[in-house]
Amino acid sequence: MGKIRKVVIPAAGLGTRLYPLTRGQPKEMLPIVDKPVIHYVVEEAVKAGIEEILIIIGRGKESVINYFDSNNFDSNLDREYGFDKFPEIFFVRQKEPKGLADAINCARGFVGEEPFLVLLGDTIYTTQSKDAVAKQLVKAFESKDAPIIAVEKIGQSEIKYYGIIDGKKVSDRLWLIKDAVEKPDPKDAPSNMGIAGAYVLTSDIFNYIDRLSKGKNGEYQLTDALKAMAKETEVYGYEFEGRRYDIGTKERWIDAFIEFAKGDKKFHSK
Ligand code: G1P
User: Fold this and answer.
1) What is the per-residue pLDDT for 54?
2) How far is the CA of 191 from the centre of ligand 1 (A)?
3) Which of the listed residues 28, 155, 216, 227 has the most CB atoms within 10 Å of its CB?
4) What distance in Å separates the CA atoms of residue 243 and residue 123, rounded to the nearest whole number?
5) Total domain count for the chain?
6) Domain of 72: which CATH number?
7) pLDDT given at position 75
8) CA–centroid distance, residue 182 to ligand 1 (Å)
9) Cis peptide before 147, with omega less than 30 degrees from 0?
10) Residue 83: what pLDDT?
11) With a cut of 70, which residues of the chain have pLDDT below it?
12) Is residue 45 part of a domain?
């Protein structure tokens, strides 16, 4: 089993639920206190020991590329803003918004045969654990040597926004996944355990992506590829220790901004 050295960060989604905020800027560039969302995602990857980053962008996401230009980072700033060593970042463009599985497929050349981490470009985490959420997932992958995805309990009214798994709980935080369904009607959901924006995948996933037909909302869904994979091989869900902020809606973005501001002493009056 190889070390997880690479992360793929899909950041090509349209951000329609954040209009008009995202008419002229990508949701990944919305500020959370004093950094854009994508900065936190890259920090999360670095905390998991990642050395190489591929960000998948689409139309209108050029500011994400500009943000990571190296001349924007002097070494003090790197440290002040969370990077000891600035990771290698590459970009690839998804030509059309055809779904998360199609976006991941754009990473095929970058990934090669290695297992890799996937962190969604609009999802950030906090944790009280000594290990960042992505690190927890990488460790869980190392212990099982099988694909593993972050999962968490989802409230009934939110189930329609998530991939939902069906499986068997095999230990404190681990689920053996038997099935998965993308954004089900709550009455048809197999459980309340939702896919929570972080994955460690093996390059086998591309074989399942190749066989996909269009799924929910006419898009190629990663959840459908994982479902097919789980029918043939072990795929695990991992209940991480921490809190997830999905910056997909205005409410969540505001919630994240307030929580991060409260947690950042720089912005507290003396
Ligand atoms: C994606 C995935 C979904 C997952 C969710 C987590 O959906 O397709 O399975 O539960 O991210 O945020 P999206 O939010 O891109 O619609």
Assistant:
1) 98
2) 16
3) 28
4) 10
5) 1
6) 3.90.550.10
7) 62
8) 8
9) no
10) 73
11) 1, 71-81, 269-270
12) yes
- With a 6 Å cutoff on the Cβ, whether 121 touches ligand 1 is no
Tell me if 162 CB under 6 Å of ligand 1.
yes
**One-letter identity of residue 128:** Q
CA 29-35-36 angle, 5° bins: 15
* Domain contains 270: no
> Which ligand 1 atom is the nearest neighbour of the CA of 122?
12
Distance CA(262)–CA(254), nearest Å, equals 12
pTM over 0.85: yes
Domain membership of residue 132 (yes or no) is yes
Q: Cα(267) to centroid of ligand 1, in Å?
A: 32
d(CA 72, CA 63): 12
Residue 62 Cα, ligand 1 centroid: separation in angstroms?
22
The closest of 89, 49, 54, 40 to 69, measured between CA atoms, is 89
Give me the domain span that covers residue 98: 6-263
Task: For residues 5 and 193, give the distance between their C-alpha atoms in angstroms, rounded to a whole number.
Answer: 28
Residue 173 domain-assigned? Answer: yes
Residues with Cβ within 8 Å of 46's Cβ and at least 6 positions away in sequence, in order, are 82, 83, 84, 85, 87
At 14 the pLDDT is 83
Ligand 1 contact, 99 CB (< 6 A)? no
